[in-house]
Amino acid sequence: MKNGVWLNEPKDWSLKDGILDLVTDEGSDYWRETYYGFTRDSGHFFGVQTPPAFTAQFRIRGSYQALYDQAGIMVRIDERRWIKAGIELSDGRAMLASVLTNGRSDWSTAPYEGNADDFWMRVTVEKGVIRVQVSADGQFWPLVRLAPFDVADHYLVGPMACTPERSGLKVRFSDFQLTASLRKELHDLT
Predict the structure, then answer these.
(1) pTM of the predicted model, to two decimals?
(2) What contacts 130, CB < 8 A, 6 or more positions away?
(3) Residue 189 in domain
């Protein structure tokens, strides 16, 4: 993560020995238009540049307390084309959430049955497709989402955290890996 660049650097953060700790600023969010009608591009994202095909994964530890508190992974081409996925507090519980944005945002959620305070996210991008996976232990990787994703000569990938309704979510990101695309079969969950 040492080569990362901030989009909306939080006031409180540190990076030491590959561990990124941050505390979210008030009103941080990523969203484009759908349902709410507004566009926000103020969330915290620490992006590392990738080649056209890659796999990235890391561990996320946080304590979600308020509506829409969220932390996870983001892959970004520009302000109109990106995806974020991770844990988001909604409807009174930790949800596994993903937002895919291609001009406008969608939002998909499902109850997360693992430990929402300590989990892993993985993305693989290749040939116009993104595969998003989650893991409770960094070993077993169920599918979260498979979607079309614009082909680009590079992307930014890395940790993302937002608190649209408050400030103060403390999150730790660690165990970052960026490799060539894993090219695993869709139902290979290793």
Answers:
(1) 0.97
(2) 75, 83, 123, 124, 145, 146, 147, 148, 149
(3) no
